[in-house]
């Protein structure tokens, strides 16, 4: 019975029954964070406040009054969410030392339910990138680089070179969050998703990455990239946990007027056994150039899995898929140009010593504070927004956006319940290879399978599926109808059960192993 | 079609961000080239989409003050302030012209 339950219910049960205390859990996670420091997943570890939160949680459990299923559960938050009293940097020099006076709504909600905030995770600067390699605190390393599974498949080079040069990226931009969940240093993490930033690293790190429908979860306190596409993302080790997190975060927020006003009812996922009434669409355009033959085969196998289980599997077409990256490129840079204008050195963040004039101070501050990627996007965005270019580029992109969104509407209207696609073009690349191409090119390549869901505002989830020939995780993506997260997650959970994705075998985790972690590992199998 | 130095200068003014080096300018050129693919799509009769939630009404709440009076907290993050003011260098002074400021574009 315990194996059938979600991991969260297992740990929650353990907490309730006193088999483990919140402080023990917190301390173990903190110790594991220390011993996995080489992953560079965390920018800030809030040790003191986390332990304090854990102690308060323990008091509540002692009184028999836990706040809920998340009480005492260690979580991590991507460093582009405001956290009161804890530094928020967006991995940029512009915000180094910035201590926010308020909590982002998602952070507040988690704290209100007793979750223990372990720290802020690493990302690409201002969430711009698909590798988590372009932040000022350095790149995040994929925990799978150090797994038994990957090492076994690695071509042996000289031993000294081996681990140092062979490590692979996490994907991005929520790489720190994905690595944190993947390496067991927390039970769940919050990321953000604008073009795939939660699903991409989830796929590369072998964890569940959920992008909710735009408007479902509040963006208040999430430092914005693209206001019309950003959403907070959820990273967990199993689909049930993602549902729990979703339940605690979704719902209207008066502080974010782009959240819908419909009542949101948290749900528990049913154990689907009969998929005969399900219609799964396979969008042919997602067989994108550069898709590895391995992933293509896996995608095909997954489609067959559904077919053999009695579901209706049909090929569908989303004809404007090819243009979604270009469209995103224009809309994103345009919104970025606007959103980054707030960083002028006056009210918060870095301020240059330049004093000649307001404008020159702003210019110097921004020159010193932003990296090449950010500056590049600001300049491109400003170009597309010039009066002479506005119609030609910005408005044109908005029109193409509608065509992309309509593609999905048509497909869902034709009777398809859910779409099945790959999440990434290949498994995680070695860092040395990844940095050979520039950020924009990489993003353009890597976002191709995830981006359109952001265009259309649809919910999408990465489910870890299998290991590649190199011993690295590969995931597949499900895209659902607007606000139909329950159906999306139910199908994802069924699929997760079928594929039985292996647990990562990490030396560091074994050393810290305890009854609780053992629990975690076995819970991934059913 | 290369972007003229005038436009590049104009962009540096608008964005208050500099191109830094030839790579920065190349980056913009490539970005424009990439974006030009949009023109392959026929969008006749298609309305631009601002938001995926366009069919819904925006939430408007009552005009009641629910929070505020936090000048002290807000000022904490500012580097230069005097009493309850953010201090800025003199305004009304335009960014120096191309020839007079330190910019990579000067050589172009």
From TrEMBL, chain A:
Which Gene3D superfamilies does this UniProt record tie to the protein? Amidase signature (AS) domain
**Alphabetical list of InterPro entries matching this protein:** Amidase, Amidase_dom, AS_sf, GatA
A Pfam match is Amidase
Task: Kindly give the SUPFAM superfamilies that the UniProt entry links to this protein.
Answer: Amidase signature (AS) enzymes (SSF75304)
Amidase domain sequence ranges: 34-147, 169-489
One of the record's GO molecular function terms: glutaminyl-tRNA synthase (glutamine-hydrolyzing) activity
UniProt keywords, alphabetically = ATP-binding, Ligase, Mitochondrion, Nucleotide-binding, Protein biosynthesis, Transferase
Q: Which GO terms describe its biological process?
A: glutaminyl-tRNAGln biosynthesis via transamidation; mitochondrial translation
Question: GO CC: one term?
Answer: glutamyl-tRNA(Gln) amidotransferase complex
State the HAMAP family in the record: GatA (MF_00120)
| Protein known as | GATA amidotransferase
What is the gene called?
Qrsl1
Automatic annotation (TrEMBL), chain B:
Protein biosynthesis is among the record's keywords: no
Q: Which domain of life is it from?
A: Eukaryota
* GO BP: glutaminyl-tRNAGln biosynthesis via transamidation; mitochondrial translation; regulation of translational fidelity
Q: Which GO terms describe its cellular component?
A: glutamyl-tRNA(Gln) amidotransferase complex; mitochondrion
The Swiss-Prot or TrEMBL record annotates one GO molecular function as: transferase activity
Which keywords, in A-to-Z order, does the entry hold? Answer: Transferase
Q: Which NCBIfam families match?
A: gatC
Q: Which PANTHER family does this one have? A: GLUTAMYL-TRNA(GLN) AMIDOTRANSFERASE SUBUNIT C, MITOCHONDRIAL
What's the name of the protein? GATC amidotransferase
């Amino acid at each position: 019975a315990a194996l059938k339950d979600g991991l969260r219910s297992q740990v929650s049960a353990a907490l309730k029954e006193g088999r483990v205390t919140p402080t023990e859990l917190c301390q173990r996670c903190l110790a594991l964070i220390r011993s996995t420091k080489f992953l560079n997943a965390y920018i800030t570890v809030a040790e003191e406040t986390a332990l304090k939160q854990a102690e308060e949680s323990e008091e509540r459990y002692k009184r028999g009054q836990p706040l809920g299923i998340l009480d005492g559960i260690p979580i991590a938050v991507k460093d582009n969410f405001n956290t009161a009293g804890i530094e928020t940097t967006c991995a940029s020099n512009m915000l180094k030392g910035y201590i926010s006076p308020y909590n982002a709504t998602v952070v507040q909600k988690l704290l209100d339910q007793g979750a223990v905030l372990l720290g802020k995770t690493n990302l690409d600067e201002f969430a711009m990138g698909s590798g988590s390699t372009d932040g000022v605190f350095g790149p995040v390393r994929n925990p799978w680089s150090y797994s038994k599974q990957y090492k076994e498949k690695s071509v042996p080079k000289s031993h000294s070179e081996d681990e140092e040069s062979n490590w692979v990226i996490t994907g991005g931009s929520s790489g720190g969050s994905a690595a944190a969940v993947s390496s067991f240093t927390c039970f769940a993490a919050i990321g953000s998703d604008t073009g795939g930033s939660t699903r991409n690293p989830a796929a590369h790190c072998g964890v569940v990455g959920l992008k909710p429908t735009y408007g479902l979860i509040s963006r208040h306190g999430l430092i914005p990239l693209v206001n019309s596409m950003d959403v907070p993302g959820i990273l967990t080790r199993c689909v049930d946990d993602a549902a729990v997190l979703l339940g605690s975060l979704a719902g209207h927020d008066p502080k974010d007027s782009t959240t819908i006003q419909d009542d949101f009812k948290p749900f528990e996922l049913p154990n689907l056994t009969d998929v005969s009434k399900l219609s799964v669409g396979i969008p042919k355009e997602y067989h994108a150039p550069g898709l590895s033959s391995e992933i293509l085969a896996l995608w095909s196998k997954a489609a067959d899995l559904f077919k053999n289980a009695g579901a209706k599997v049909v090929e569908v077409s989303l004809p404007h898929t090819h243009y979604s990256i270009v469209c995103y490129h224009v809309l994103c840079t345009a919104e970025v140009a606007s959103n980054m204008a707030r960083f002028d050195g006056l009210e918060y963040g870095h301020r240059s010593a330049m004093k000649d004039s307001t404008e020159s101070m702003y210019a110097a501050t921004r020159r010193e504070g932003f990296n090449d990627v950010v500056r590049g996007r600001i300049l491109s965005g400003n170009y597309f927004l010039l009066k002479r270019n506005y119609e030609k580029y910005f408005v044109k992109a908005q029109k193409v956006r509608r065509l992309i969104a309509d593609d999905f509407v048509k497909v869902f209207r034709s009777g398809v319940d859910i779409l099945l696609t790959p999440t990434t073009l290949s498994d995680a690349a070695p860092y040395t290879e990844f940095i050979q191409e520039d950020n924009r090119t990489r993003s353009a390549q890597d976002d191709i399978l995830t981006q359109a869901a952001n265009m259309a505002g649809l919910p999408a989830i990465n489910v870890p599926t299998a290991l590649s020939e190199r011993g690295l995780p590969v995931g597949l993506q499900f895209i659902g109808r607007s606000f139909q997260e329950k159906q999306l997650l139910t199908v994802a959970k069924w699929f997760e059960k079928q594929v039985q994705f292996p647990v990562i075998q990490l030396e560091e985790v074994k050393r810290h192993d305890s009854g609780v972690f053992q629990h975690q590992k076995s819970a991934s199998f059913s | 079609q290369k972007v003229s130095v005038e436009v590049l200068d104009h962009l540096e003014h608008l964005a208050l961000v500099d191109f830094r080096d030839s790579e920065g300018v190349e980056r913009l050129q490539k970005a424009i080239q990439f974006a030009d693919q949009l023109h392959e799509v026929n969008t006749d009769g298609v309305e631009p989409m601002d938001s995926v939630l366009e069919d819904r009404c925006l939430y408007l709440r009552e005009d009641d003050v629910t929070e505020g009076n936090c000048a002290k907290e807000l000022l904490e993050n500012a580097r230069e302030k005097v009493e309850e003011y953010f201090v800025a260098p003199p305004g009304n002074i335009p960014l120096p012209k191309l020839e007079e400021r330190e910019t990579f574009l000067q050589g172009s």
